[in-house]
Amino acid sequence: MKPSLTTTILPADGTAAEAAADCLAGGGLIAFPTETVYGLGADATNARAVARLYEAKGRPSFNPLIAHVCDLKAAQDIARFDQRSLRLAETFWPGPLTLVLPKAPDCPVSDLATAGLDSIAVRVPAHPVAHDILRAFGRPVVAPSANISGHVSPTTAAHVFSDLAGRIDLIIDGGPVSVGVESTIVGGFEIPLLLRPGGLPREDIERVLGEPLGRITAETHATETSPLAPGMLASHYAPRTTVRLNAKHLDADEALLAFGPEEIPGGAAAMNLSPAGDLVEAAANLFSYLRALDTKGARTIAVMPVPDEGLGEAINDRLRRAAVPT
Ligand code: TXA
Ligand code: MG
Asked: pTM of the predicted model, to two decimals?
């Protein structure tokens, strides 16, 4: 994406949270301080805003994102807690701990933000500015670190500006952050697992759980039915229906996932990722359309070619993973 937006920087004073919430509500992208690192936030329930976020970061693939909420009650609207996870949340939130949990039945977070998984990563940040923004906005905010993909995570507003000026709408400057490394991620609560070491020490978590945290190993992956660290798996979100890539024609028993104005004719079950050929729109629709076509009873989902540029690279990465036999 060419840097083309005007990026406003606001000091974190009395009106900043309202401005940030308004921007989020309009589908905008805001950088804001959390206690760990600056986050790049988007409305988690708005797939188009989430797609813009991936694009602004230049993420090569749609890693699932962490949904940030203002308190445990809001977290319980989007995720299902068991006794162990509730205990950790009550002990360490707000704070640098992310929990990967089963999605709540009516979870409003877009499938794109969770990369089509049935689980969701949730966190209640401790920074007062983050808290005020989340409270003012009233919906979950997905936020990876506010840097270009592959760069070091930002701990000041100036770091954010040097990476993302022209790519995002607003930066809320709350000064340097306190923790400086990302949150610790814990998941897999039947066997609690440390998915990412981070700002909350493992020992503190183990003391509260009264048991050691497992580590991610090849074996853990092989035996789990739901992927715990999806970025590490070849097949990430795979529909049950076989996926055929680069389709130039459609067979009678196939569903069609189209892209662009020149759609292949004749499909009974057809959805177009973006009739206008807009890759941001296509990314926003990708996971939910794959899910919808998966219910049509077709032999195969035939996918038209998507250009391998901008968000197209991430779309194609995800489509290739979806096409890997499971
Ligand atoms: O401290 C932090 O956590 C920062 C601040 C901004 O809050 N955010 C952050 O987000 O580090 P990000 O996107 O860089 O890291 C998210 C991590 C990824 O490694 C991703 O694979 C994992 O969380 N993740 C998200 N959802 C997941 C899920 N359902 N299952 C397993 N891992 C998940
Ligand atoms: Mg990061």
From this structure: 0.84
Tokens representing 314 are 């991430």
Residue 1 pLDDT level (bands cut at 50, 70, 90): low
CA–CA gap between residue 247 and residue 251 (Å, rounded): 10
> For residue 152, what are its two tokens?
């070091």
Percentage of the chain with pLDDT > 90?
66
Helices (H), 151-307: 157-164, 202-209, 218-223, 279-294
Percent of the chain with pLDDT over 70: 91
Give the chain's domains with CATH numbers.
8-179 (3.90.870.10), 242-322 (3.40.50.11030)
DSSP 218-272: HHHHHH-SS-SSGGG-SSSS--SSEEE-S-SS--TTEEEEE-SSSPPS--SSEEE
254 close to 203: Cβ distance less than 8 angstroms: no
Task: Pick the residue whose CA is nearest to atom 32 on ligand 1.
Answer: 229
Whether ligand 1 lies within 6 angstroms of the CB of 117 is answered as yes
Q: Quick one: average pLDDT of 252-261?
A: 95
Q: Which of 69, 159, 182 to mutate to test the pocket of ligand 1 (most atoms within 8 A of CB)?
A: 182
**Widest Cα–Cα separation across the chain:** 61
Q: Are 114 and 64 in contact (CB under 8 A)?
A: yes
Contact between 125 and 35 under an 8 Å Cβ cutoff? The reply is yes
pLDDT digits (tens, 9 = 90+) for 286-326: 877 887 898 899 999 999 999 988 788 878 877 887 888 76
The kind and range of the H/E element at 54 are: helix 47-57
- Token pair listed for 281: 């729109």
